[in-house]
Automatic annotation (TrEMBL), chains A, B, C, D:
<comment type="subunit">
    <text>Homodimer.</text>
</comment>
<dbReference type="InterPro" id="IPR046373">
    <property type="entry name" value="Acyl-CoA_Oxase/DH_mid-dom_sf"/>
</dbReference>
<dbReference type="Pfam" id="PF00441">
    <property type="entry name" value="Acyl-CoA_dh_1"/>
</dbReference>
<dbReference type="InterPro" id="IPR009075">
    <property type="entry name" value="AcylCo_DH/oxidase_C"/>
</dbReference>
<keyword id="KW-0274">FAD</keyword>
<dbReference type="InterPro" id="IPR037069">
    <property type="entry name" value="AcylCoA_DH/ox_N_sf"/>
</dbReference>
<dbReference type="GO" id="GO:0050660">
    <property type="term" value="F:flavin adenine dinucleotide binding"/>
</dbReference>
<dbReference type="GO" id="GO:0005737">
    <property type="term" value="C:cytoplasm"/>
</dbReference>
<dbReference type="InterPro" id="IPR013786">
    <property type="entry name" value="AcylCoA_DH/ox_N"/>
</dbReference>
<feature type="domain" description="Acyl-CoA dehydrogenase/oxidase N-terminal">
    <location>
        <begin position="10"/>
        <end position="130"/>
    </location>
</feature>
<dbReference type="InterPro" id="IPR036250">
    <property type="entry name" value="AcylCo_DH-like_C"/>
</dbReference>
<dbReference type="Pfam" id="PF02770">
    <property type="entry name" value="Acyl-CoA_dh_M"/>
</dbReference>
<dbReference type="InterPro" id="IPR006091">
    <property type="entry name" value="Acyl-CoA_Oxase/DH_mid-dom"/>
</dbReference>
<keyword id="KW-0285">Flavoprotein</keyword>
<feature type="domain" description="Acyl-CoA oxidase/dehydrogenase middle">
    <location>
        <begin position="134"/>
        <end position="236"/>
    </location>
</feature>
<keyword id="KW-0560">Oxidoreductase</keyword>
<protein>
    <submittedName>
        <fullName>Acyl-CoA dehydrogenase</fullName>
    </submittedName>
</protein>
Amino acid sequence: MDFAYDAKTEELRDKLLRFMDEFVYPAEPVAERQLADAEDPWARPAVLEELKAEARRQGLWNLFLPDPEHGGGLTNLQYAPLAEITGRSPHLAPEALNCAAPDTGNMEVLAMFGTEQQRKQWLRPLLDGEIRSAFCMTEPDVASSDATNIATSITRDGDEYVINGTKWWSSGAMNPNCAIFIVMGKTDPDADRHRQQAMILVPRDTPGVHVKRGMHVFGYTDASHGGHAEIVFDDVRVPADNLIAGEGEGFAIAQARLGPGRIHHCMRLIGIAERALELMCRRAISRVAFGRPIARQGVVQEWIAESRVRIEQARLLVLKTAWLMDTVGNKGAHTEIQAIKIGTPLMAEWVLDKAIQAHGAGGVSQDFPLAELWAAARTLRLADGPDEVHRMSLAKRELKRYL
Amino acid sequence: MDFAYDAKTEELRDKLLRFMDEFVYPAEPVAERQLADAEDPWARPAVLEELKAEARRQGLWNLFLPDPEHGGGLTNLQYAPLAEITGRSPHLAPEALNCAAPDTGNMEVLAMFGTEQQRKQWLRPLLDGEIRSAFCMTEPDVASSDATNIATSITRDGDEYVINGTKWWSSGAMNPNCAIFIVMGKTDPDADRHRQQAMILVPRDTPGVHVKRGMHVFGYTDASHGGHAEIVFDDVRVPADNLIAGEGEGFAIAQARLGPGRIHHCMRLIGIAERALELMCRRAISRVAFGRPIARQGVVQEWIAESRVRIEQARLLVLKTAWLMDTVGNKGAHTEIQAIKIGTPLMAEWVLDKAIQAHGAGGVSQDFPLAELWAAARTLRLADGPDEVHRMSLAKRELKRYL
Amino acid sequence: MDFAYDAKTEELRDKLLRFMDEFVYPAEPVAERQLADAEDPWARPAVLEELKAEARRQGLWNLFLPDPEHGGGLTNLQYAPLAEITGRSPHLAPEALNCAAPDTGNMEVLAMFGTEQQRKQWLRPLLDGEIRSAFCMTEPDVASSDATNIATSITRDGDEYVINGTKWWSSGAMNPNCAIFIVMGKTDPDADRHRQQAMILVPRDTPGVHVKRGMHVFGYTDASHGGHAEIVFDDVRVPADNLIAGEGEGFAIAQARLGPGRIHHCMRLIGIAERALELMCRRAISRVAFGRPIARQGVVQEWIAESRVRIEQARLLVLKTAWLMDTVGNKGAHTEIQAIKIGTPLMAEWVLDKAIQAHGAGGVSQDFPLAELWAAARTLRLADGPDEVHRMSLAKRELKRYL
Amino acid sequence: MDFAYDAKTEELRDKLLRFMDEFVYPAEPVAERQLADAEDPWARPAVLEELKAEARRQGLWNLFLPDPEHGGGLTNLQYAPLAEITGRSPHLAPEALNCAAPDTGNMEVLAMFGTEQQRKQWLRPLLDGEIRSAFCMTEPDVASSDATNIATSITRDGDEYVINGTKWWSSGAMNPNCAIFIVMGKTDPDADRHRQQAMILVPRDTPGVHVKRGMHVFGYTDASHGGHAEIVFDDVRVPADNLIAGEGEGFAIAQARLGPGRIHHCMRLIGIAERALELMCRRAISRVAFGRPIARQGVVQEWIAESRVRIEQARLLVLKTAWLMDTVGNKGAHTEIQAIKIGTPLMAEWVLDKAIQAHGAGGVSQDFPLAELWAAARTLRLADGPDEVHRMSLAKRELKRYL
C-alpha cells in the first residue's frame, strides 16, 4: 500500500498545477463568455483549442492512457492525482488534456480490442483530439444496470451488421465534433447471459442514425461533456469489420471499460470537492452576516471541518483503489472500485451542498459553478448503475466470506 | 388544535380535485409542448389562460386571499389543503387559480397596506390575473437575511422618489406579463435598525429599470414562476404616491408578507412530496430489474415508508401552523412558521431525492418533473433566509424559556 | 382531525402537571437514593408507593384504561397528553399512575378478553396496583417479529395446559411484585398461519417456571420497568381455565394489545424528548466553554432548533394516531400506528444524543438521566418488531394504492 | 504515503493473529464466567494473567512503546495494524499485550518526561504489567476541553506539593491493581494560558486521596478499562520530586500524550468495527425471518456494504495519520489526528448500530458484545474533547489557508 507520489508523478503534478494556474483558470471566464455568445448550444468554446494545443506542447496529453506509445504510460496511481487536479476545472481541464469522458473509455476500448484498421481510423484522430466520440449503452425502456435487459439488436446481414434500437444517455453525442459511436447491442439474445452482447463502431453520420435530443441533468444540458443524447438506430448498416473484438464480447468489453471509467470519475470528484471546499472557505471569510464573517459561525465551521474529513477519507480510498488496479488488476480491485463508486459521489454531493448553502441564493445560480457540479455529482449516483446495485453486489461479496 | 377540514373546505377540495383531474393534469403535456415550441423562453403556455378562465368560472380563484371581498375569504387552515393540492402540479395549478407566488404576497401587501389608488391601479388587475408582479428585496452583494444590509436607496426628491440599487432573485420579473415591482430599499439609513426601510411601487417600464438577466436554479430558469431577475435601478423616478404605507414601514411590511408566503410554500411542498411519492410508487411497480419489480426491493420499500412517515409529520405541522395563524396571529405562530420553513423543504428534498433514485437516470432528466421539483425544494432552504438563520432564531426563543 | 385538548383533558393535565411538580420530580432524587441503598437490585423504591397512594387519591389512576368502570374512561386522544407528561419522569410517573407497561397492555387484554374469574383474580389486583405482571412473547432462538416462528407449546392435557418453551425479553418479570405472566404459545402448529397461537395465564410461582436472568439494555437492567427476563417454561401446568379467549386466538389478542401499547410508548417518548430538550437548554445556558455559554454556539443552537422541529412533528402524528384510533379504530389507524412506531423512537434517540453531547462526559453517565433514556429509545427501534419490518409493511400498503 | 505493512509488521501481524485465535478468543467466554463469579465488581478475570504471560513469552508485549529498549520499537505505522487487531477483542487483547489505555499514555509520559527515579519506581512495574495507572485530568464542574478551566491546585509547600481538587473520568482508577495516578493541576493560575498547568505523580494510597465512585457509560462500569473514577484530592501531599518535568509543563505534556492516545483509540475502533461487521454478516446469514435469511434483505445488504465502505475509508485515514506522525511528527499530523478523532468514532458507532439492529433485541443485551462496544464508541465522541471542539479547531486551520 504505497500511495506516495513518485518522481514522475510529482513532476507532472508540478507541471499540471502550473498549467492550471497559467492557462486553465484564466480561461474559465473566457470560455463562459464564448459559450454565452455562441449560437450553437452544443458548441465548445474556442479557447479550448488553445488549451489543447498548449497542453499537448507541454506533454500534458493523453495522460490517462497506460499505453506509453499513445498515451502517458502512467499507472492508475500515477494518473490519479493528475485527474484530481483536472477535476478542479471539470469543464475545461479534462478535455484540454484529451482526458475527458467518454473519449477516454472509448480510446481504451479501441487500444485494447480494436483491429489495426479500427485503431488507425478512429483511435488516431481521437488521440490527436481531432474528433470526439460517444458511448451508447443505456436504453430508455429498461433497467440497464442489468445487461441482459439490453434490447438493441446487432444483426449480421452479409458483409454488414444492421443495428436497431434506441439509446439514451449516450454521453458526448451532442458535441458537434463527435464523429463516432461505440454501440452496445445483442448479437445473440439466446446465448449465455454474458455472451449475448457485442460492441460495434457506428459513424455518427451513418444513414438511419437519428440523434433525437439531449437529456438534461437538473436543467443542465451538460454540453461541456457533449451532452447525453437520445439516439434512434433505425436499420443502421455498417461494415461487418466495424464489430469490436467479436460477437458475444460486448459484456467483457463493457466490464473492462467500466473499471478505469469509474475511478477516473472518482478522481475528478475529489478535485471537484476540493474546489467546492475552497470556494466555501473563501465565501465564508468574505461574507458578513449579523456583524461578522460567516466563517466565524459554528455551523459553517462544522461544514468545513466535516468536508475536510470526508475528502481526505475518500481520496485515500481512491488512491488505494488505483494502487490495487495497478498491482492486482481491475478484477482484484473490484470491491474497492465499487466502494469508491458508492462513496465518492455521495461525499462530493455533501460537500457541494454545504458550499452552496454557504453561498446563499448565489450558490444555486449560474454565478458559481457549485450547482452544476452538484448536479454532476448527484447524477454519478445513477450513472454506471445506481448505488443500490453496487451496494447489493458489494454486500454479497462481503457475506461470501462467512458462507 | 382542530385541523379538521370543515364543510367549506371539503366542498372546495372536491371541486379542486375534480378540476385537477379534468383540466390541470391533462394540460401538463399540452403546456410542455407549447413551451417547447415557444420562441420567448419566458413565455407562459397558452393553455394556462384556459385553465385560469375555467378556474375563475368555477370559483377556484384568488382562494389565498383572506379578504372575502376580493379573494376566497378562507382562513389559513381552510386554504392549506387546497394549496397542497395545487402543489401536485406546481407549474400550472397555482397560477391557474391566481394563487401563485410572488403575486399572492404582493396582493396581500396591496390589500393590507395599499392606498385606494394603489389598489385600484395594481391590485385590481392582479386580482383579475391580467398582469403579474415581482418582489424586489434580495441584493447580490450582501447577506440579505440581515435587513440592515440592504443597500438600495429610496430618496425623496420633490414629488418623486428616486431609486438606486441592484436587486437579484426578483422572482416573477422575467414574466412578459409582469407589470409592477414592489421594491424594498432604505429611506433613512440612520434610523433605528427596523425603521430604515420602505417599500415602493415601480412599474416595470419605468426609465432606469434595467432587467439584466434571469438567475438560474440548478440549470432551470424557473420560467414557470416568472424567473428570478437581476435588476439594476439606475436613478429610477416614481411619484411619491407610489410609496407603500410610509417611510420606515418596509421592515414591518416585509414581516407581514413573509408569514403567509412561507406557509404557502410549505403547503405546496407537501403536495409536491405527495406527487413524488406517487411517482416513486408507480415507477417501483412498473420497473423490473434482476427479474422482479423494484417495488419488491427492501431498500425501495424503506424509501416509500420513510417518505410516508415524513410527509405525514410535515403536513400536520403545516396544518397546526395554519391553525395557529388563524387563532393567535402570525406573531403567535412565529416559532411554528420557522419550524415549517426549516422542516418542510428538507422533507420534500429527501422524498424527491429518493423518487429520482427510483427512476434511474430518467429521474434527473426533463422526462420527469422530479429533478426540477427537487431544485425548487432545495432552493427553498435558501429563499426567505437560509435555514441556518431560522434555526438560530428558533433556538434563541427556545432558550429564552429557561433564562 | 381535531386534536384540541377538551375540558376534561385540560383539567387532568393541570392536575397531573401539579402532581409532577409537587410529588414526582421531588421524588426522583429520593428514589435514586433508595435504589442505591437497596439490597435487591430489582426492588422498587419505597417512595413509589407514596406516589401511587397520592395519585390514586387525586384520581390520577388507571387513566390509560378506556373502560370507565375500571379506568380513566378516556379516549386515546385524551390520554395522549397525559401519557406524554408521565414520560418526563419515565421511571416513576407511569407506575405512580398505574399506567406502566407491560401492565397496561396486560390489563387491557384481561379487560377485553378475560373471563369474569380471570378478571377477578388478576385484573382486580393489577388495577389496584397490588401486583404487577409480565408479557411473555419474544423467544431467543427465532425472529419473533414473524409470529409463525413461535416455538413455545401450549398443549392440552385433561383439565390442564402444559407449557414448554423459552422466552426472553419478558418485560416486568424481574419485578419482585410480578405475580402473573401472560404467555404466548402455540396450541396448534398446523392451523392457519394466524390461528396457531394462544395466550395463557401463568402465575409466576407455578412449578416449572424458571426465571433465569434479566436481559440488559446497553448495560442497564431496566429494573424500573421490572427488567426483561429470560424464562424457561419446563412442563409448566396450569388449569385449562387459564387460557385467554380460546385456542387459536393468540395472534388476534396480540394484535389488539399492540396498537395501544405502541402509542403509549410513543406518547411517553414525546415527554422524554421534551425533558431532554429542557435539560439540553439548561445545560447550554449554564455551561461555559472558551469564554461564553455553549448556548451561544451555533452548533448547539442547531441541535436545539432541530429538536424542537422534530418533537413538534412527532407529537402531532402521535395525536393524529390517537384521534384515528378513537374515530376509525385501531385497524383504521394501522398505517399511522406503524408510522409513529418508526418515527418517534428515532426522533427521541436523536434529541437525546444531542442532549448527551451538550452535557459532555456527564451526559453518558449516571449523573443525568439522558444515557439511560437514550438506551430506552434505542431499544424501542427493536421492541415490538424492528423498524425494518414496520417500514416494509407500511410500504406495501402504500404501494397497494397503485396496484 | 507508503502504508504498506513491512516485513516486521507482517511477522508481528501473523504472530498476533495466531495469538488471537489460539488464546484470546477462547479466553473471552472464560473471562465472562470469571467476571460473573467475581465478588469485586472491579476485579479483572484471572485468565488475563495467563494471556499476559503468554503474550510476553511470544514477544507481543509493550508493542505500543516506540522506545526499543522498553517497548516494541515500532513506528506508529507498524503499530497501527496490530492495535487494530487487538480492537477485535477490546476487553482482553490490549491489556494482554500491556497496550491498554490509560497505561500506554502514562508510560509514554514517564518514558519521555520522567526522571530516572520516577521511571524506576513507576515505569518499570507498568512495563512489567505488575501495576496499573490512571490519568486524572477531567473535572466535573468545568468544560475541560478548555485547559484554562482546570481548577485543581498543585501548590508547593517546602519539599512537598499539596494537591486539592476533584477529578472525574479518571480512567483506570477503579482497577484494584491501579497504584499510581498522574494528576493534572495548576501550579500557577496567573501564568500564560498554557504555562499554568503541571502534572504530578500521586500514589493511589496517599492520604487525602478519596476514590468516590466509578462513572458509568450507558449503564456500563467499563470495569475492563478500570472504570472511570471520581476522585477527591483533599490536601494530598507528595514529595516535590513527584512533579513531572517541571511547573508549567502540564499543558505541553498533555499535548504530547494526546496524539498517540487518540490514534491508538482510533486503531482499535477500526478493529471493533471489523468485528461488528463480521458479527452482522454471520447473524444475517443464520437468522431467518419471513422464510429467508435476513442476509437476503436489501436493507441489511445496504448496511453491510455501507459498513465496508466506511471502514475502509476510516482505516486508510488512520494509517495515513500514523505515517504522518512517523514522518513529520505529531504536530505536523495535527489536522489528521483531529480528523480521525472526529471521523472514526462516528464510523464505528454507525456500524455498531446497524450490527445491533441486525441482531434484534439480542443486540442491545449482554449476550453480544455490540451494545457495550457501541457505548464505548459513542463515548469517544466526548472523550479527549467533544467532536465539536475538534471540528471548530480543524475548520479554523482550514480557513487560515485563505486568510
